[in-house]
Amino acid sequence: MGLKFEFEIKENNEDAKYFQIYSHIRDLILNGALPGGSKLPSIRILSKDLNVNTLTVINAYKMLEKDKLVYKKEGSGTYVLPRDKELIIDDGMFYFEPGEREFGYSYGEDVIDFTSSAPDPGLFPIKDFKKVMDKVLEEDGASAFMYHTSTGYLPLRKALRDYSKSYEIECSEEDIYIVSGAQQGIDIIAKATVKNGDYIFVESPTYSGAVAVFKSRGAKIIGVPLLSDGPGLKELERLVRQFRPSLFYAMPNFQNPTGYTYSERKKKYLLLLAKKYDFMILEDDYAGDLSYTKKDAMPLKVFDLDNRVIYIKSFSKVFMPGLRLAYLIVPEGIRSKTADAKIATDISSSGLMQRVLCNYIKDGILERHTKYLKKELAIRYLEMVRAIRKHIRGGSLIEPKGGLNLWVKLPMGVTSDKLYKRCLQKKVVISPGVFYNRDDMGLFHIRLSFSGVSVEEIWEGVSVIGLEIEDIKSELSN
Amino acid sequence: MGLKFEFEIKENNEDAKYFQIYSHIRDLILNGALPGGSKLPSIRILSKDLNVNTLTVINAYKMLEKDKLVYKKEGSGTYVLPRDKELIIDDGMFYFEPGEREFGYSYGEDVIDFTSSAPDPGLFPIKDFKKVMDKVLEEDGASAFMYHTSTGYLPLRKALRDYSKSYEIECSEEDIYIVSGAQQGIDIIAKATVKNGDYIFVESPTYSGAVAVFKSRGAKIIGVPLLSDGPGLKELERLVRQFRPSLFYAMPNFQNPTGYTYSERKKKYLLLLAKKYDFMILEDDYAGDLSYTKKDAMPLKVFDLDNRVIYIKSFSKVFMPGLRLAYLIVPEGIRSKTADAKIATDISSSGLMQRVLCNYIKDGILERHTKYLKKELAIRYLEMVRAIRKHIRGGSLIEPKGGLNLWVKLPMGVTSDKLYKRCLQKKVVISPGVFYNRDDMGLFHIRLSFSGVSVEEIWEGVSVIGLEIEDIKSELSN
After folding, report:
1. Fewest CB within a 10 Å sphere: which of A153, A240, A277, A380?
2. Does residue A184 surpass a pLDDT of 80?
3. Min CA distance, A385 vs chain B (Å)?
4. A87, pLDDT greater than 70
5. What are phi and psi of B390, to 5 degrees?
6. Which range marks the domain in which residue B383 is found?
7. B 326-355 residues with CB < 8 A to A
8. Residues B317, B399: one domain?
9. Residues A358, A377: one domain?
């Protein structure tokens, strides 16, 4: 007994037919609708049902097999693979070639860079910063340069407690820990909570900088396939029961790299699972402020009634990366371990910067600047979406309506690593999906960040990408 | 067949006789002169040889037993213990009581604090700093606030290459990595080189912040007993053969907490051992600049012909802790792992601070400031030694002639934890030896840092410590 597929092949859809079949079945598997062990319809029957050539179905099944979603039993048919060990991400270090690409690396003046999710330096509030800095140096003097308490400068922790309230997060200053950027926050939480051999869940695709941290502590990483409204719930619960993770690292709003936002239902269900199966969630709210609609994105932490969520918020995106400051909201049970981990990591964050940020928040400059930044980034976002719709023909895109990144599905046959290399020669830099996920999803997607480029660069750069895609396509059909 | 002890009990020595016997035999064991399995002279013979009461020898042997240096075989005698598992430091986290003491914690205005090894804030070069900062903000503007390359701001790396030359260390800018303070340097090197289950050697006593890092990575920590001119060489080689460490964390100049400096012979021998037994040495040169004699302390790195030394130098002590900057000199073989570890740790250090430090070094201000600081600290050092000699009667001290700390042996029977609590009540804070070492050495020593206190505070504070010691002594004799 196979199962009936209720979907239609669209003749005018630009995805080739076999890719439509592949995508549809893939989503069913990842959503949990097709559990491990399910038998797929035979090639003969499916091709008849869908009115396509048998070769089309064969190609679709081949792709599913390559994704390790299904397997063939000789003489019996094709089955959904029970998913376990093969989910382990065993290569989570940075995929950048040494020397070629690292944070802070500049490709030069004449390069259009769609890889940086830091804001355009033209948007940095340098003047405000200098004013606040002068005030701090004058008023605080030498105290600003002593060691500061590892948990953070108390007036800043209080200011962040109030700031969190504006995002509907209720917490006390005791819950708040200052760290030197979100990456350090992840590292410190890993030190406080992750032991050798633990299973850690991450979204797939995800930010490789987090995976690197967990792997460095000897954890086993399980990638939970991400759909456009969050992980498939059945699949997620199945994986949780199987692996019993200690931690789930998630970016529920405007996820990196996909831009996807979890539905509120999925946010709440994830919290239920965390309680039921006793794991913590590390919420990296790296861009939650940046909603370009009237509706704000709600942090998972808002719904966290059982203290399951460790919350990280960076100021690299809404202020300046060079500030190197972020904060954690830490549930009581792991506070003292977190404090110890911070000391072992770098003793304390820069007191001078903490005092500057504190004044910056208290004087209302951060709020004003965030508003300004959102307006500026919304313009770039809209232009970017338009440029992609116009120039990347046959590609597709789920519009995130917020954040810093767009996750573009490439037209059939065009692979992200090839496109990356081609564009680089034309002085346009993109992030190939393989940086975030090594299966077919990564291979057929690119991440385009729009926050570090001007509107002119957006149109020029995306048209270059579009031309390269057309070139690759025409080479494929020859 | 025992062995003959060639030493004399000094009647006018303020240490009790049994403590003299204990100290002498302890040194012989730790120096390697008495290997594991050696039989000590019988109590009867030794008391006769030394012309002391048998009870005196019994007490000395009891202390050695408590230190786990010797053991008694029933009906046979006392033997030197083959030293292995019991050397593992299994409790390397911070011994501070939560909330009571952490980096940056201030005990209040009216407290004399001998625990901080950061310089007196009155010595911070705030005016110079502000001048350089203004220059950077004006000239570099927004670039100072972007992500910087993880390895560090190149002009700073070049400046540090030249700076290192002034300490006779030859290296290229490629060898230099900028990190956010020495603690982070230790953490990054641990990430790059330490695996779960590795044996790591540290000096005993040592800086607990380093032990915490290694333990957090699942390493087993072996404390190598430190003598006033470095580890006992025979003992060290024996331990190396037994445990095959991957890394030795060492502070060969003005060690923390003891202030001891390795002899040049021991520095060179340590390097030979590292080559012979294939381990790396992490040299934490936290205070090497601060020699108060005409002779500069030579970093181990100067003698490192086989690239066995990873060198860490902080600017917290000679500049300001609030700068949060240090640098590593990294042998080629572990460079790419170190770069990956830095990214996973916090992506990059503050670009603004790196630029400020860079200008500060290039303009010769650091050199000038270090000279000034040395002069100021030398005064405090000399006053501190005098105050201790005067007020801590029956204590003893090996004068380090440099650095930031004095390691004071307390008079017989006075324990460091008790003294710590007593002094705290009198608003004088000291570091009890048990923070650094949990055997009798820790119990009978205190660390006094003199860099964060004025000359007046030194005399006032040390006299309080002296009075408390006298009180404890008189309680003991009642």
Report:
1. A277
2. yes
3. 25
4. no
5. -75, -45
6. 112-122+368-477
7. 336, 339-341, 343-353
8. no
9. no
Report which DSSP code applies to A253: S
Q: Do residue A352 and residue A333 come from a single domain?
A: yes
B-chain residues within 8 Å CB-CB of A144? 322
Total length of chain A: 478
Q: Give this prediction's pTM.
A: 0.81
- Determine, for residues A146 and B122 on separate chains, whether the beta-carbon distance falls below 8 Å: no
Computed over every residue of chain A, the mean pLDDT equals: 87
For residue A125, how many C-alpha atoms fall within 13 Å in the half-sphere facing its CB? 24
Measured at the CA of A122, the angle between CA A118 and CA A128, to 5 degrees, comes to 100
Q: What's the complex ipTM? A: 0.77
How far apart CA B212 and CA B93 sit, in angstroms, is: 5
Q: Please, what is the angle between helix A154-165 and helix A351-362, to 10°?
A: 40
> Measured between alpha carbons, how far is A407 from A396 in angstroms, rounded to an integer?
9
Helix, strand, or coil (residue A243) = helix
User: Are B466 and B408 within one domain?
Assistant: yes
Q: B98–A339: do the CB atoms touch at under 8 Å? A: yes
**Amino acid letter, residue B79:** Y
pLDDT cut 90: percent of chain B above it: 55
Which chain B residues contact residue A130 at CB under 8 A? 137
Question: Token pair of B437, please?
Answer: 């070492």
Percent of chain A having pLDDT more than 90?
55
Contact B181 A346 (CB under 8 A): yes
Helices (DSSP H) in B264-334: which residue ranges?
264-276
H helical segments located in A260-350 = 264-276, 335-346
Most confident region among A33-42, B58-67, B261-270 by mean pLDDT: B261-270
Question: Looking at the 3D structure of chain B, how many domains does it have?
Answer: 3
How distant is the alpha carbon of residue B368 from its chain centre?
26
Q: At what angle do helices B208-216 and B182-193 cross, to 10 degrees?
A: 30
Residues B355 and B405 in one domain: no
Among residues A236, A242, A253, A188, the alpha carbon closest in space to that of A220 is found at: A242
Measured between beta carbons, the chain A residues lying within 8 angstroms of B316 are: 147
- A88 lies in some domain: no
pLDDT for the residue B96: 37
**3 state SS of B167:** coil
Inter-chain residue contact B126 with A103, CB threshold 8 Å = no
Check if the beta carbon of residue B125 is closer than 8 Å to that of residue A137: no
| A268 and A388 fall within a common domain | no
* Least confident among A143-152, A156-165, B152-161, B231-240: A143-152
End-to-end CA separation in angstroms for chain A: 41
Residue B11 lies in a domain: no
pLDDT tens, position by position, B410-451:
998 899 989 999 999 999 999 998 888 777 788 899 999 999
Neighbours of A309 (CB within 10 A): 27
